[in-house]
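Task: complex structure prediction.
Instruction: return structure tokens for all chains below.
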Amino acid sequence: MDKKIKEQGIITATEQITSDIYGMWVKTAQIAQNAKPGQFAAIYCKEGSRLLPRPISICEIDKEAGILRFVYRVVGKGTDEFSKLTAGDKIELMGPLGNGFPLESENVILMGGGIGIPPMLEVAKQMKGKVSVVLGYRDAENFLKSEFEPYADVYVATEDGSVGTKGNVIDAIKANSLNADTIMACGPVPMLRGIKQYATENGIDAWLSMEERMACGIGACLACVCKSKEKDSHTNVQNKRVCKDGPVFHMSEIDLD
Amino acid sequence: MSDNTKNLSTTATDETRLNTAVNIAGVELKNPVVTASGTFGSGSEYSEFVDLSLLGGVVTKGVANVPWAGNPTPRIAETYGGMLNAVGLQNPGIDLFVKRDIPFLQKYDTKIIVNVCGHTTEEYCEVVERLGDEKVDLLEINISCPNVKEGGIAFGQNPKAVEDITKAVKSVAKQPIIMKLSPNVTDITETAKAAEAGGADALSLINTLTGMKIDIEKRAFALANKTGGLSGPAIKPVAVRMVYQVANAVKLPLIGMGGIMTGEDAIEFMMAGATAIAVGTANFADPMATARIAKEIEKFMVRHGITDINEIIGCVK
Ligand SMILES: Cc1cc2nc3c(=O)[nH]c(=O)nc-3n(C[C@H](O)[C@H](O)[C@H](O)COP(=O)(O)OP(=O)(O)OC[C@H]3O[C@@H](n4cnc5c(N)ncnc54)[C@H](O)[C@@H]3O)c2cc1C
Ligand SMILES: Cc1cc2nc3c(=O)[nH]c(=O)nc-3n(C[C@H](O)[C@H](O)[C@H](O)COP(=O)(O)O)c2cc1C
Ligand code: FES
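Output:
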């Protein structure tokens, strides 16, 4: 089930969602079959001078067709290269990597901030129990929002106040008096820190998906560590590998200060 | 052309008769391919991709007398044809390493080469002594890590210090000692000769070249440590040159490394004088790189009618 492999996938479709956010659907022989919500893949560049694969979250999983969807923001040369690929192109990828979100919860709020939104879509689709979704955007470019709507009540926060609550995802929870026993979130560290604080104060459990620079993607090189509360059993020091022990951590495991 | 084809068809089926075994300080590696320290952990993660028994040896991540937490993140940054790292020798310490990692590696038919790091001579010696009665084939002493303040590179840049630490380690070691040299020196043959004078059994080179990357959008260093060690294909010509120089300056067997991505790259290091080669950064670009490179070396041998890999070691003078 959690077997990782590297294989050559074939792009079946691509999309441009906003000025800098793109999507691609990749047919794989095995990775899609093994994938769980919240895991990621390491996607290799064709340009040989870019040695390291790019970690990109799995946005949707179609096990029957063996297809994975990735949604990514163009921020540099590698993601720019991906954005120029078209249907029929081949692409090397390794996965599924990382642990993924736990899927059992009675009443959960899923939260995504910016480019942390894509992985929450498959979580929303597979989550059992009552699901609310809070999405944080910069402005009115509310990518993927409508795709969450079949699975949950969707609330939006925007930094510029153009849509939904003005402010961040916590402001949106408060404005809409949302309640849950668990929060699951992916987004920038300041957002995760705010969620951890909110959850602690309100007696809510939280699972947070982290990001860090990666080289191996499988737990061997110790590039991608984050600070942990306790001594980790593998590293024997107070840090954990985001690529292998994460990217999803229980809020009590990690130190975000 | 027709000659070539004939050669291929007669020998291609004969891969089993090739001799790929090489000898490092009395330890026979079934082929010249080992892993480069720090890129492969202790092998367990990569064993999901590569049968470790296909490798000449596994060189572990550097291990110290006590656990080290390493540097703050970001610890790595990609550069053109390479990468910078400043992991800072994070390691679980010798106790957990001996209990967990050595038994894991013993399950495979491959040589176990433990990379040792420390801040002081005493720390290196403590680890080397601890490993004396363990089932470890070779020890590689990292005196060349650019990412820790004391120890590491401070030892590796001064020939007198290299000779002294080599002697100290040799005096307590039960396994043969490989000294890992730093390329961040004016003349690498001086430190190589110093290690030989101190009693080293073999040398490995090169460790990473100190580098820096600045994120011009953020006006900030790409690495939290500011500087990091450059590895990958970008450093290969420097590494080949240094292997060649050292091969001509000392009598010790060499493990060559620095940007090896293919079997052809490995052959280049061997022709420059390396007896074995290590694969590091290539693992990140291809998790099967080590086993693939071992296979590609065999294919090169078949293609060129080489029956014993030892024929090509240092053949380019
Ligand atoms: C677990 C995980 C999941 C991710 N999921 C997504 C996703 O679903 N969609 C998305 O758009 N982005 C995602 N990211 C961020 C994405 O990996 C980077 O934006 C991407 O690697 C940038 O590559 P580049 O070549 O365009 O940028 P460059 O800046 O040219 O890349 C240079 C190097 O830095 C690394 N890098 C740059 N930015 C980041 C970053 N933020 N995080 C990690 N490495 C980085 C690159 O991988 C590469 O090695 C995720 C990151 C992680 C760690
Ligand atoms: C992420 C990373 C970690 C490393 N850690 C160590 C280490 O712990 N000890 C050591 O002697 N060398 C370490 N090195 C250096 C490599 O073993 C090797 O000498 C160098 O990277 C050149 O080879 P390459 O270009 O094939 O990677 C490390 C290199 C990298 C990229
Ligand atoms: S990227 Fe190598 S340990 Fe996580």
